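Hallway conversation turned thread

IA: we were arguing at lunch whether anyone had actually written out Undecaprenol kinase end to end. Turns out nobody had. So, for the record, here is the sequence (136 residues) and right after it the structure tokens. Reply here if something looks off.
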Amino acid sequence: MGLQDRNKKGFRRLLRSFKYATEGLMYVLKNEQNMQIHLITAVCILVAAYFFQLPLNHWLILLLVIAGMFSLEIMNTAIERTVDLVTKDFHPLAKRAKDIAAAAVFVYCLFAVIIGLLLFLPPILQFFQKGQLLPF
């Protein structure tokens, strides 16, 4: 948001904030390979959830995990760009900040995989035990 908007309030400022947020989201989707991988993975997971007819509470968990993954990847990108803005030279602390932000995404991703396995393993096993071609 522009400096001129810092202390202002109102509907126009609110609309501009949504515009800036959309620009940020589009930047990350277009330019960050990891975010593109997360997006493709999320779409595949949601298709699988539909295919296996997961219950509503599993859908809610999946949506929360996916939103968390997207949000964390966006924050990681913001931290990386901020560090790049502060210094173009190699600095051990700049590297450390980027590595720590990436580690946060990595840890969340590991737990997202565990959650996905816990949600999908029972219906997948049931699917193969029944020998069905379609779960419905």
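OS: looked through it. The mean pLDDT is 92.
IA: good, adding that to the notes. DSSP finds four helices and no strands in the chain.
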